[in-house]
Here is the input.
Amino acid sequence: MHPDLLLLSEAIPMPHSAFAAAATTLAGGMLIGLAAALLLGTLGRIAGISGILGSLLPLPRVNSTFETGWRVAFLAGLLAAGFVAQGLSPTLLSNDTGTPAAMLIAAGLLVGFGTRLGSGCTSGHGVCGISRLSPRSIAATLTFISAGALTVTLVRVLGGQS
Amino acid sequence: MKAELTPSVLSAAFISGALFGAGLVVGGMTDPSKIFAFLDFFGDWDASLMFVMGGAIAVNAPLTWWLRRREKPILQASYSIPASSAPWRSQLNAPLLVGAALFGVGWGLGGYCPGPALVSLPGVVDASSMTNALTFTLAMIAGMVAHSVYDKQRQRKEMPSGAACCSPDEDRGTLAPNGIPPSSLR
Here is the structure.
């Protein structure tokens, strides 16, 4: 865990630091759940990042300021959170796992294409879809987690990084 | 009734995005090594992502259930949630599963999915060069655009007459929220 997140976890009164770290992680998840519920409760929309971003590409639909507007506002909020995090902890977001640029590019292309083809990602399917017991989302989540696990294993076995 | 982009709507969307981003950061999801460690089932496994997703569902599921019993969301005339009357097995179509598989491979290769990548973009301000998140995000946008192109081509091939929709007897399986066509629910 990043030292600054560990610092945050020390604010949680727990008998053991490992429990505090786990509690922090859980709290992060709960914030995500709250955010998704907020979007559903106010605007009636699913907080699926790939959909929110993807439907603005290649161009926002100019015939609806509302559709474009709320999506841009949501993404702006996401970025704002990132800026605040960056301000509070300059090393928190720039994680270098040693993944080569070529692999990152392949990864990005696959994630971009795949999330649009599959109509969702970890937020849309994993959080929102499972929350409403959508068969499509449950199937999609099981599929992408399995594919991810197989990929990480293969990369590790083939001598890359994991 | 045309939906209005009021300050309330903008605020609700912005706050939701900000809370979401905060959750991703606090949950440690902006660190690809956490993702690799979660996906490394057969190696050194780290359950963190399960806590994040579990925590999210634990909060979102009951709230979703409660909210959907209400007639409408606070700021809109109706909910815009994908829905289908088709038997569930038929809803699990090729685009869904192939798309999820491709996404999973990309996720396993890069350790990023769309949300964390976007939240991590501001990290570039203190970096001396491109960050991994930025490289990934640019490629992700390219991938999304590629799908948009692919989808348009596919729709044109299936309906050479230029018809706007599929044949009447084909069960689309999903309502299109607000007229934005679901790209590949056929």
